[in-house]
Amino acid sequence: MSSDKTLSMQDVANAAGVSRMTVSRCMRNDPKIPEATRFRIQEIAIKLGYRPDPLIQRLNTHLGDRKRSSYVGTLAWVTDLSEATSRISPQMAETFDGAKARAEASGYMMEEFNLDRKRMTGERLGKILLARGIQGVLLAGIFKQRFSLRMPWDQFSVVTIGYLLRNPQFHRIANHQLHTGRTALHALHRKGYKRIGLAITRQTNAYSDNLWLDALVFYQRSIPLNHRVPAYMPSKWDECSFIQWVQKNRPDSLISNDTNILGMLERNGFRVPGDIGYVNMDWTSTRPELSGVDQQRFATGEASVDMLTGMLYRNEKGIPKIPRVLMLEGTWVEGTTVVNVRCPRCDSQGSPSERRC
Asked: How many structural domains does the chain have?
C-alpha cells in the first residue's frame, strides 16, 4: 500500500475478502482456522505492511472478557534445529518446558518458529513476527547460523540462550560453563582420578564458549606433567581415532557431553566405571544413572522468560549497547559412572580398577 495511513485489521480483511474476526484469529494463529488460510492472511498482512499495536492488543484483552486468563501476548521461541532434533534433545525440551511454564505464568503464550523450514530466513521471520504483533523473541537453539542472524532487531526485545549466536550480541542466559567444567574436574579429583581427559567436538567447544577447555587447562597447571591428558577435540566423532587417543593417552576418566562414547568404549573392551570413569557435562534425568553436572535447563528457560518479559515491560528493543550475561550454576549429580578410586593405603597411577585395594 502506498498510503501513509496506519493500516487497520479491517484493511487486511478487505484485501483478503474475509471478515475482520477471521483476520484477528489468523494473526493469533488460531488452530481452528485452516493452516492454508492462516498462511494466506498472514502473507497479505505482511505485503500490506500491517503491524498491530501491542498496547491496543493488551487493552482489548483486558477490557474483553475479564473472566478469561490474563493473556498479555505471545513470545517467539526461535531455533534453527530440525524439528526432529528439537523433539529428541532432552536438553532442548527441558529448556523449552521451563520457558513455556514461566511464560504462561506471566500471561504469555510461547510459540515455536523454526528457521530450518523451507524458505524461512531471518528477514522473513521478522516480517511474520511483526505481522503477528509478536515483539518478544527467545533465540534458543541457533546452531547452523551461530555466527550471524539478520532480522529487523530494532523492532524486537531479544534474549539469547547459550553462547552460539555471536552476531549480533544480545542479552544472554547461559549456564556458568567454566564452573561446570571445574565442578566436574574437582569431583573427579576428590574421588582420586588422576588422568582426566576431555572428549568433545569442536562444535561443543564453541557451545561451551571454550570454557570447559579453559577449566581443564587451568586445572592441569596444578597437577604433575605426567598426569596431564591432551583434549580430544575432533570436528566430528570418529570411533577409530577416539579409541586410538584413549589407548595412547590412557585417561582414567573422561568428561564429555556425548553419551555415544560409552558404547565406543564398551565395544573396545573398556569398562565404565571399572576402567574409565565418565562424567556427562550436560546431565538430564533421561539418563539418571550417569554421573555428571545438571546445567539446570528448566531454570534456564524460566530465567530467559523473566529477562525477556522485563525488557518488554520497559520497552527495551534492539541490539543493546552493553549486553548482559546472566549465568546459572550447575549442580553435581553422583550417578554410577564414576567411583571413589582414592585409596588411603596407596597412591597408584594405574587404572581405577588397579588402584582399588
From this structure: 2
